[in-house]
Amino acid sequence: MSAYPTLFFIDYTGEVVLQVRGARDAEGLIELGRKALGMVDRSAQYAERYEQGDRSPELVYQYIKALNQAGKPSLAIANEYLRAHQRELDKEENLRILFEALVQADSRIFDLFVQHRPQLEALYGAEAVRHRIEEACRRTLETAMEYDSETLLEEAKDKMKAQCPASAATFAAEADWQFWRTSTDDKAAYKAARQYARTFDDDARALDRLAQDIVLHRAESAQCLKVAEKSARRAVALEPDYYGYHYTLARVLEAQGRTDEAAEAARAGLKVAQKAEAGPAAEALFKRFLQQIGMAE
């Protein structure tokens, strides 16, 4: 072990599948966990039995689960089984397969899932079912982005609105911004940025993320940079004692060519970092920025 902490992710055989140096926040740990799960592939042990003709509910369930966990396609296996047992989907063993088989919202399985939602909620709980639906909509959004499909984008939003209305507005705002932020359609990107900022007006972290995204992806758009500035200033107002939000504001102002104001924001952030005793790395962040824009003292 050469760094502290060093995180080891171990599979079911005792083998280390992922080793990462350095601490992570909660979201970082969750993301690493997902990455580690994707590196564990148990599907081969079920594939052999499946190819030999085993179509028992338990085998199919474990096979689909293993494929999903490894990030491999499971739709063909799931569809074949569910078509063969479409009149028996109320059985618990088949409901379990249906629950595990749901991967994307743009699928026949999603429609079956919704049709059997009451039974699934009785088996897994309403929160678990809702989470599964949201994840399916997010994967359809990922597919929409991969293939630049507005049709899939709208389908994901529509199905989220129909099935999870309480979180539909935030999903739509996130989805539109993710889809349009790297597009060549400046008008759509600006519209999505504004809607995102309005939707997350009381969420400093989300506003900061939006501002950073705009600097990264749409720095050539004066309109989007105005949204970024407003969002960054709002994040600072909501949580003035976090130095990171001051740094984002400084970057936004620098992207707009307002060097003096960027330096002022960076110096304010440096003071916040020093007061919070955030450490030498945080202080170096601002000093390096000031040097880069030619405003070092």
Outline the secondary-structure elements.
Elements: E1 6-10, E2 16-21, H1 26-38, H2 43-51, H3 57-69, H4 75-84, H5 92-101, H6 108-115, H7 117-124, H8 126-146, H9 150-163, H10 168-180, H11 186-199, H12 204-217, H13 222-238, H14 243-255, H15 259-275, H16 280-292
Antiparallel strand pairs: 1-2
Helix pairs in contact: 2-3, 3-5, 7-8, 8-9, 9-10, 10-11, 11-13, 12-13, 12-14, 13-14, 14-15, 15-16
* Low-pLDDT segments, ≥5 res: none
Query: From the coordinates shown, what is the CATH architecture of the domain at 203-297?
Result: Alpha Horseshoe
Strand arrangement within the widest β-sheet reads 1-2
- Structural class category: mainly alpha
CATH class of the domain at 203-297: Mainly Alpha
Please tell me the overall pLDDT: 92
CATH topology of the domain at 203-297: Serine Threonine Protein Phosphatase 5, Tetratricopeptide repeat
> Mind telling me the CATH superfamily name of the domain at 203-297?
Tetratricopeptide repeat domain
Beta-strand content: under 5%
Count of DSSP H/I helices: 16
Quaternary structure: single chain
> What is the CA–CA distance across the termini?
40 Å
Helix-strand string: EEHHHHHHHHHHHHHHHH
Give the overall form.
elongated
What kind of sheet is the major sheet? 2 strands, antiparallel
How many DSSP E strands? 2
Q: Report Rg.
A: 24 Å
